[in-house]
């Protein structure tokens, strides 16, 4: 955490102003579905067996300050990122190299690759892929005398189940509403909010992405009905986030969707001889529905694959003619190892973007990352990680998906020495992003917590592409657009986290010129 | 309860269909604010001290069947009713006669009249009145060989705090959504729903009523800001119903409103020498706001007037130059005694509508009502009430506002004999409305109850009028329109009730031609 670069914020409130803000926020959020189902620790299953209670989603009371130049840059490069990752996902030969490095340490990656190989052997019958991506950044203060003191640096790039698009749209509307009803009073010395609150287009944006895929899909004409499948976890506390996309898909595009729980894939879907995927709604088994697009809001985490049956289900979907959002290859393109390889200093990933100027724009957002293996970059990584002084600027992340906690700064050398060197390649070293200090207040489970916060900006992108027949990135992009943003804010005492994990809150941006 | 006149309804559902309907409904209602704060018996204050939990409002799973002819008639006569009751409210001399009959039995009415007299002595400074009315009906099966077998008959006419306009609009949208996502399956033999679900315009309608008053109000030009006051109970579980009107008022008309708790009238408002009402928001005491219109969602029940201070507060508002929705006189026009006098057989209320044809339309909706006093109609009332055979077609209602329970049918003679005859004039005898049998399912607090139901159709009306200088109904109507509908449905085992009281549910109409 660097020093603050922002003016004093948020504005101080009297007790009456806090009460007014809180009451207005509590009612607006429920009236507009900025909500979650309550955690079991708040409302037990016994108390509410049919699950009718809901509560305000974790939100910030104020929109957080965010440098306008960083915000604009992040949104403006999203189409480049969409294109870039679409190319990574189409480059099977290159991905194979990555996977081979991981197969020993990561069963999950190995199993995903196995799914790909099985479908490849049989032959893919759908060459369209939909990506609903989210590129996550933090603002970084560059102290090394660059002319750009404030930069956005990428935390990660999500290629599957990028969540909070529904709530991000809502929270940006909430903060604007609160401003319009004087819930953010402030004299002439406070930060001007009017005209500076950024609306997120994430609901219309992501719904438009799904609609593009649905309309591009070529129906078999064997069925009267065509639908999108939201593949979901069950139960899902964050259900309203997803529902807002369903409602927009129906209201704005006239497209029906169904929620298919991860556990019910094999019961509720079947495949024709031509591998058209057919959803048979349990409530209307006589009205089967051809699936144009599968939107994965489940199946992203190793925890969800509890038995071979879950892998059978994933294979079943991958084999089908439905457009996958994402395909297995696209999911693999989002793994940490890929990000590390792309961001390893001195090795610009020209393979995926030959235009140097465009690639440079992306690379400006990379934070240096190193493997911990025996290669050239790995040697440098080990040196940086073992020296207590340099280690203090780094974080050590596990390569494995869903695999353990990060190790921060001074704890890195000691940690490495506590494990066999043969295990080091399972880790990635990344330079720490140093965000400017900022304050806000977060509402969670009815409690307001005030203090220092860290914001993470996620930019959504939608991209539909057609794979080529080759194995090295051939194909073409059919549609590509930026699709709104998310600001996630958490207390600065926690180094891990995200709203879903129970740490942070959804937020929106109050843009400032610095 | 008469025999059913409807086709079989609702359609039978499989377990999977019930599950789909329930899940879809639960999520949609929270995503769209068709919600209430949970009752203390469901979620205690200790569990949720800051009140962030919410639950689906009591709703029906299906839109209830309703005869199209009755629905059309009820909506089409609302403007007549608005005009009629506006005239009653302007006829001080006639109301005085009513009040004089009640003063002995009803302190509440006596106190309201006292407020009126005090303001009259000083002189009223606002001749505009806003009525946001709701006329409540049930469908009545006429077995007496009339050519109109199905008729709507008025249960009551509400001139103050007519609630559920916010939720009525939502529930009609909910039922249409459920139909659009196949939550109401049914073969060719079931009642056709497509094209027959009636949308309620209650939110835009009632908000437009408030906007008309606000824009007609002549500002003092002493203050920069002008607002509408929602005068509310605190706490209020039905807060989202009201919030939807606030949001529409701001979004559709650009009009700011504030929620003023009943207990805080004297703290938070003051009056200028010219009796302009000024609201001083506790959160922004330096930004006073001139009040154009006071929308009463509190102050309607005797229970709310706990001490003389509450009456002082009511007088304070009534004296002011703000437009009242309603004035004290308009509130008095809605008392049961007025309804009884208007609906006493053989005494058409020509005083309020001289056009015989128009009056006849209203009178068709009256159910015969009798006083229980010594006058001519009272004698007839006593005869009907004491004869066990005729009593079986009647209900005995207390005249007093908020005063005790109704006595039904065969229990009437016995009840009357158990109290002194001198107390009989405190009651009103009304012929029972005999609604057709109907079935539906209601969701309340997470439980689904299925069975026989009774529906009550409420039609909202908005009316802005200017009183004349005289005392007998002079003045003119400036705006008058129907403003949407509410269907409230309750289990047919309860003879009392309403959704707020904890008995029923909000519903919408599936219109049928019979």
Task: Give a summary of the structure in a few sentences.
Chain A is 34% helix and 25% strand. By secondary structure, the first copy, chain A, is α+β, with helices and mostly antiparallel strands.
Helix content of chain A: 25-40%
Question: How many domains comprise the coordinates of chain A?
Answer: 2
Q: Return residue spans of chain A where pLDDT drops below 50 for at least 5 consecutive residues.
A: 494-502
Strand-residue proportion of chain A: 25-35%
Count of β-strands of chain A: 21
Q: Taking Cα atoms only, what radius of gyration of chain A do you get, to the nearest Å?
A: 23 Å
The largest pleated sheet of chain A is described as: 7 strands, antiparallel
Structural class of chain A: alpha+beta
Largest interface: A-B, 48 and 48 residues
Bulk shape of chain A: globular
Count, helices of chain A = 16
Global mean pLDDT of chain A: 94
Multimer state: homodimer
Distance separating the two termini of chain A: 18 Å
How would you sum up this structure, described in words?
Chain A has 16 helices and 21 strands. The first copy, chain A, is of the alpha+beta class and about 525 residues long. The first copy, chain A, has two domains: about 15-365 and about 445-510, no CATH class; about 370-430, Glutathione synthase lid domain (Dna Ligase, domain 1, 2-Layer Sandwich). In chain A, helix 5 runs parallel beside helix 10, helix 6 (about 165-180) crosses helix 8 and helix 7 (about 200-215) crosses helix 8 (about 240-255). Chain A is globular. The two termini of chain A are about 20 Å apart. Mean pLDDT of chain A is about 95; it is low at about 495-500. Chains A, B: Its cofactor is Mg(2+). Chains A, B: Keywords: ATP-binding, Glutathione biosynthesis, Ligase, Magnesium, Metal-binding, Nucleotide-binding. Chains A, B: It comes from Rhizodiscina lignyota.
């Amino acid at each position: 955490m660097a020093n603050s670069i922002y003016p004093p914020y948020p504005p101080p409130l009297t007790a009456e102003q806090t009460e007014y803000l809180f009451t207005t926020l509590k009612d607006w959020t429920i009236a507009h579905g900025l909500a979650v189902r309550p955690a079991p620790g708040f409302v037990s299953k016994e108390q509410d067996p049919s699950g009718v209670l809901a509560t305000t989603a974790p939100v910030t009371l104020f929109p957080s300050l965010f440098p306008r130049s960083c915000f604009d840059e992040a949104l403006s490069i999203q189409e480049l990122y969409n294109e870039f990752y679409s190319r990574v996902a189409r480059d099977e030969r290159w991905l194979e190299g990555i996977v081979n490095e991981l197969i020993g340490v990561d069963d999950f990656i190995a199993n995903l690759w196995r799914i790909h190989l099985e479908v490849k052997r049989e032959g893919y019958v759908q060459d369209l892929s939909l990506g609903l991506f989210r590129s996550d950044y933090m603002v970084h203060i560059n102290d090394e005398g660059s002319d750009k003191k404030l930069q956005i640096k990428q935390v990660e790039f999500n290629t599957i189940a990028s969540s909070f698009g529904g709530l991000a749209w809502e929270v940006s509307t909430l903060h604007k509403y609160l401003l319009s009803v004087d819930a953010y009073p402030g004299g002439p010395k406070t930060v001007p909010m009017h005209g500076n609150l950024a609306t997120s287009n994430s609901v219309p944006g992501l719904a438009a992405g799904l609609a593009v895929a649905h309309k591009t899909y070529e129906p078999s004409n064997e069925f009267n009905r065509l639908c999108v499948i939201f593949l979901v976890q069950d139960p899902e506390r964050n259900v309203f986030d997803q529902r807002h996309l369903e409602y927009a898909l129906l209201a704005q595009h006239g497209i029906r969707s169904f929620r298919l729980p991860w556990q019910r894939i094999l019961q509720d879907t079947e495949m024709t001889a031509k591998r058209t995927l057919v959803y048979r709604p349990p409530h209307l088994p006589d009205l089967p529905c051809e699936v144009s697009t599968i939107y994965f809001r489940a199946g992203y985490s190793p925890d969800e694959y509890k038995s071979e049956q879950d892998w059978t289900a994933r294979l079943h979907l991958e084999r089908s003619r439905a457009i996958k959002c994402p395909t297995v290859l696209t999911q693999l393109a989002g793994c940490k190892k890929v990000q590390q390889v792309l961001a390893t200093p001195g090795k610009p990933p020209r393979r995926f973007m030959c235009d140097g100027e465009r690639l440079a724009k992306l690379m400006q957002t990379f934070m240096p990352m190193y493997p911990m293996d025996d290669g050239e970059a790995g040697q440098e990584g080990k040196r940086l990680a073992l020296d207590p002084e340099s280690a203090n600027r780094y974080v050590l992340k596990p390569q494995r998906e869903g695999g353990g906690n990060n190790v921060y700064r001074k704890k890195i050398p000691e940690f490495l020495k506590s494990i066999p060197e043969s295990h080091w390649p399972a880790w990635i070293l990344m330079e720490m992003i140093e965000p400017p200090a900022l304050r806000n207040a977060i509402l969670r489970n009815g409690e307001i917590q005030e203090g220092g916060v860290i914001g993470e900006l996620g930019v959504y992108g939608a991209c539909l592409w057609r794979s080529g027949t080759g194995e090295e990135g051939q194909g073409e992009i059919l549609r590509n657009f930026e699709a709104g943003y998310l600001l996630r804010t958490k207390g600065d005492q926690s180094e891990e986290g995200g709203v879903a994990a129970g740490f942070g809150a959804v937020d929106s941006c109050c843009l400032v010129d610095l």
